[in-house]
Design goal:
The protein is an alpha/beta fold. The chain contains eight helices and six strands, in the order ααααβββαβαβαβα. It is about 40% helix and about 15% strand. It is elongated and about 60 Å long.
Length: about 200
């Protein structure tokens, strides 16, 4: 294999979930694009951290300020749906059924992978809850071991907080599934049947 081709393939392999064959397909697909498209792609990557950041409130993707959800006064301020990743938030937002706010943890508790409660944005969630009189925390972590552990940890942290109601998405989602791969109907039932 050409060393320069292999080097670019190796760069794509650093992305999560990208194996050697998929990385090679990415490089081959880029080789078929025009110089202008490749330049645009490269500039987008170069400016990624300058042009896009995390919302300082919920940690959704934003334009270096509050995201469009946190800055929308029409959103229900008494509900915070807690998710692991931005892709989970996006999946729920696509349903158009949830009117409240979000909080992106940045992962799930998994000591085997070195992810402890201190690694997540739980302190920030605590500050948000402390600044409200009444709030429903809707736990929407994935239904796998790490997600369940995180959900139990959050429930334990906030169970005695005055004015905090804790609910969990209904079991419309199968155990072991990830929110970003769930279809809209499954998410709709999970949101409607939360307890």
């Amino acid at each position: 294999m050409n060393p320069k081709f292999k080097k670019i393939v190796d760069l794509f392999r650093k992305l999560p979930g990208v194996g050697p064959r998929q990385a090679a397909r990415f490089v081959l697909a880029l080789m078929e694009r025009s110089d202008a498209e490749i330049k645009e792609f490269g500039e987008g990557i170069l400016n990624l951290k300058k042009d896009i950041s995390s919302c300082p409130v919920c940690f959704n993707v934003s334009d270096n300020d509050k995201c469009n959800i946190c800055s929308n006064p029409k959103r229900d301020q008494s509900k915070i749906l807690v998710v692991e990743k931005v892709t989970d938030l996006d999946s729920i937002e696509k349903t158009g059924l949830y009117p409240g706010l979000y909080h992106v943890l940045g992962g799930a508790i998994n000591p085997i992978d070195g992810i402890t409660p201190d690694s997540l944005r739980l302190r920030e969630l605590g500050r948000r809850v402390a600044n409200t009189k009444k709030v429903e925390l809707i736990l929407a972590t994935n239904l796998n071991n790490a997600g369940e552990t995180t959900s139990m940890y959050i429930r334990d942290q906030f169970k005695d907080k005055k004015g905090v109601v804790i609910t969990r998405l209904a079991r419309g989602l199968s155990t072991g599934s990830h929110l970003e791969y769930a279809d809209e109907m499954t998410l709709k039932h999970a949101l409607e049947e939360r307890r």
